[in-house]
Amino acid sequence: MAAPIDFYFDFSSPYGYLASTQIDALAGRHGREVAWRPFMLGAAFKTTGQSPLTQQPLRGPYHLRDFARSARLLKVPFTLPDPFPFASLAAARAFYWLVDRESAQAKALARDVYHAAYGEGRDVRSIEAVASIGQRLGLDPAALREAVEQPAIKDRLKAETESAIARGVFGSPFLFVDGEPFWGHDRFYQVERWLATGGF
Amino acid sequence: MAAPIDFYFDFSSPYGYLASTQIDALAGRHGREVAWRPFMLGAAFKTTGQSPLTQQPLRGPYHLRDFARSARLLKVPFTLPDPFPFASLAAARAFYWLVDRESAQAKALARDVYHAAYGEGRDVRSIEAVASIGQRLGLDPAALREAVEQPAIKDRLKAETESAIARGVFGSPFLFVDGEPFWGHDRFYQVERWLATGGF
Fold first, then answer.
1. Which region among A22-26, A53-57, B77-81 has the lowest average model confidence (pLDDT)?
2. Model-wide pTM > 0.80
3. How many CB atoms lie within 10 A of CB B135?
4. Residue A2 banded pLDDT, cuts 50, 70, 90
5. pLDDT value at residue A52
6. pLDDT at residue B2 in the model
7. Averaged pLDDT for residues B41-51
8. DSSP H or E stretch at residue A188
9. Residues 6+ positions from B185 with CB-CB distance below 8 Å
């Protein structure tokens, strides 16, 4: 069986949210699995010299409009949370604590965190907020709160982020399909074609 | 009749080249005309703090790959000229000298300059190179060489660039469809839908 598609994203990325609503269905149409891999986009920005889009002259106002317009076209809800951008450390650590235990639960938590943040515009920065989202999936909130303080989990997220940057990841979403890199939900039409044809 | 689509681009932009091979056909499918508007992307970069993509860590290597891959998907030839990025002042001035005289010729010149630069990887920086491309379209090379030195033409390009930035243009290609801004050839699927439905 073919290797899973690597789906790198930051929970604070609106385009990552849009991608999260499409990626599994896209992969599924071609019999492929998806490995979700949250990382710290801010660490990549230190390498590239970029900053959050909404803080940039001209680019900020455009992207605010494009987030909402792209969501309308995908028929998914979109509300920008306040504050934005926000620290996504708690959600990313919770994800990595879960993923080796129960990968389907980890993916469900990621989807629900994204939906809370960008579908409902809620503040998901704190571990309390993430634990409360997890509780509705049957996860023990106390265990989750404890988990994200474990040095092993902190190190795991650091290592995942470093490995992402070493592979060339600089934005969110960022995919690898059989080694081929694709940046942005706006490359999904290319990913679809790549999967259908084996490359072009 | 509906207003033309504004198509902003810099001759030194690979994604602008890709867009130039598609935009008139796209607009034509919806009975629309296109106003081609070269501008100086470097002036917008001064406002946004951006720099040419290929000079950026991580983003540079990715985009080199993406230029070529996106061109293959569109089935248009692609060769990166050397040097890249390059000064596109002569081509942009020549375009504005022509556009009020013979807009079809101006568009033909723009297409041929883009094709020479990115279809064939040729150096199109000098007015001699642009005049030689124009000559094959029946344009007088001496007139073209003289035209780009006229203060009125220099001012025209400056004014077009300032007006573009004032409208929020920060990248190439950049379109306005009935006031709605779209950045990137990768938004053409949205432009197509926008034109078909009158907005979404």
1. A53-57
2. yes
3. 13
4. confident
5. 92
6. 87
7. 95
8. helix A188-197
9. B15, B18, B19, B22, B70, B173
Least confident segment among A87-96, A158-167, B1-10: B1-10
Best of B18, B47, B69 to disrupt the A interface (most A CBs within 10 Å) is B69
Is residue B25 over pLDDT 80? yes
Q: Provide the strand spans (E) within chain A.
A: 5-9, 34-38, 174-177, 180-183
Under an 8 A CB cutoff, do B200 and A57 touch?
Answer: no
Q: Is A57 in contact with B48 (Cβ distance < 8 A)?
A: yes
Q: Which residues of B touch A48 (CB under 8 A)?
A: 56-59
Rounded to an integer, the average pLDDT of B145-166 is 97
- Whether the bond into A173 is cis, omega within 30 of 0: yes
**Residue B200 CB partners (closer than 8 Å, separation 6+):** A69, A72, A73, B193, B194
Q: What is the pLDDT of residue A23?
A: 98
Cβ of A169 and B200 within 8 Å? no
- Mean per-residue pLDDT, B25-43: 97
How confident is the model over B101-116, as a mean pLDDT? 96
Q: What is the C-alpha separation between A12 and B41, in angstroms, rounded?
A: 29
Q: Determine the residue of chain A that is closest to B46 in CA distance.
A: A57
Decide if A62 and B200 are in contact by the 8 Å CB cutoff.
no
Mark yes or no for CB contact A70/B44 under 8 Å: no
Å between B137 CA and nearest CA of chain A: 34
Comparing CA positions, the residue from B116, B123, B129, B134 lying closest to residue B85 is B123
**Residues ≥6 apart with Cβ < 8 Å to A64:** A54, A80
Residue A71: which residues within 8 A CB-CB, separation 6 or more?
A18, A77, A78, A118
**Cis before residue A14, ω within 30 degrees of 0?**
no
Which residues in B lie closer than 8 A to residue A65 (C-beta atoms)? 181
Give the residue from A90, A159, A79, A175 showing the smallest Cα distance to A121.
A79
State the ipTM, two decimals: 0.95
| Cα angle: B153, vertex B158, B162; to 5 degrees | 145
